[in-house]
Amino acid sequence: MEVSKRFHSLDFLKFILAVIIIFHHFQQITGVQFSGINFYGGLISFGYVVECFFIISGFVTALGVESKLFVNFRKWITGKCIRLYPMAILSVLVTAIVYLLYRICLGKFPEGITIGLWQLLNSVTLTFVGGGIGNISLGINNPLWYLCVLLICYIIVYTLNWISLRLTINVKYLYFTMMVAGVSAVTYKLNIPFLNLATGRGYSAFFLGMVFHYIYKNVPKKILVAYSILCLALCGVCSVLKNGIDDQWGIFTFMIWPSVLIILLSCEKLFSWNVFFMLGAISFEMYLWHVPGLYLFIIFKNMLKLNTTSFLEMVLYTILMIIISFGMLQIEKKLTTLLKTKIVIR
Question: Which pLDDT score, from 0 to 100, does residue 26 have?
């Protein structure tokens, strides 16, 4: 569904999160460690940035569901698939080619990955995480696990609203129940279809985002901002005293990210320029393309026999990905427009 109001502050946040994810995977894949802050292997687990993406997705989805009449399932899921699948499939195919080039140039597949038909099928259908037919080790372009779980969340949202309408149950309680189920899956390390670590991370954050929408709508903004500032200050003091953060997943998901969202939303007027909309738009492309781009970058360095890696190199690579993402965004627009004209959603 199209959302009637666009929050440019959240667009800016998505861009910043995408940059952090690129830094995180750059250090993870290259194995480089810096003397200062490290985005992989340091005191802070920056991989939990994905939880903030889930929270934003849940927040915007709740806004969309509330602002328009509920539609039939085919229209609901087709709209989501047109948004996610075209570029995701293209990124999987390109990544598979990059992996083959990596093997030719360096003599092995990256990260021990092998390209197989079942693996390719699970990746292009976005089913390699969450359900009963795959796991994250099967994924080509593994950051797409976020999209695998996001699609499941969309289906659950429709199902919960269907149940709510027929049983006259307040859907907010159902959202909260799914959030608790996600927390349970993470806490107790469940490993069953549709309720495991990956889906647990997704459910807890996505449905927190949906619940957060109703909190943000009904609680006075001054109270929320005061709470957020206090919450972030408390997290900062505790991390200094303990030289780190205990249970970083829980702290980031339920304290830091909601507080950051509230503060940014309260400053929405500062983000009214269209440049923030564009930055938010390319964040999806940055997320999709930074891993295959990084392996191509490594191949290029190997051909030139460049063995050193620096923080400046990581920054320059990120700038390159931002430029490339603007180009990929134009391709995405053309693909989605073509699909929308060819597929009649009834």
Answer: 95
Predicted pLDDT of residue 304: 85
Positions of the chain with pLDDT under 50 = 1-4, 134
SS3 content of the chain, % helix, strand, coil (to 5): 75, 0, 20
| Domain with 130 in it | 8-342
Is 177 inside any structural domain? yes
- Per-residue pLDDT of 56-108, as tens digits, reads 999 999 998 876 656 788 888 998 999 999 999 999 999 999 999 999 999 88
Query: Would you say residue 1 lies in a domain?
Result: no
Q: What is the DSSP string of 282-334?
A: HHHHHHHHHHHHHHHHHHHHHHTT-----HHHHHHHHHHHHHHHHHHHHHHHH
Q: First-to-last CA distance in the chain?
A: 14
Token pair for residue 7? Answer: 């929050």
Alpha-carbon span 200 to 184, nearest angstrom: 7
Query: Could you tell me which residues come within 8 angstroms of residue 261 by beta carbon, excluding any fewer than 6 positions away?
Result: 10, 13, 52, 55, 56, 59, 212
Tell me if 175 sits within 8 A of 215, measured CB to CB. no
CA distance linking residue 7 with residue 269, whole number of Å: 10
Nearest to 147 by CA among 195, 98, 75, 86: 86
Cα dihedral 227, 228, 234, 240 in deg (nearest 10): -170
In a domain, 118, yes or no: yes
Residues 6+ apart with CB under 8 A from 135: 128, 129
pLDDT value of position 344? 55
What is the number of structural domains in the chain?
A: 1
Beta carbons within 8 Å of 324's beta carbon, 6+ residues apart: 285, 289, 293
Q: What pLDDT is recorded for position 110?
A: 86
- What separation in angstroms does the CA of 235 have from each of 170, 186, 224, 244? 33, 21, 16, 10
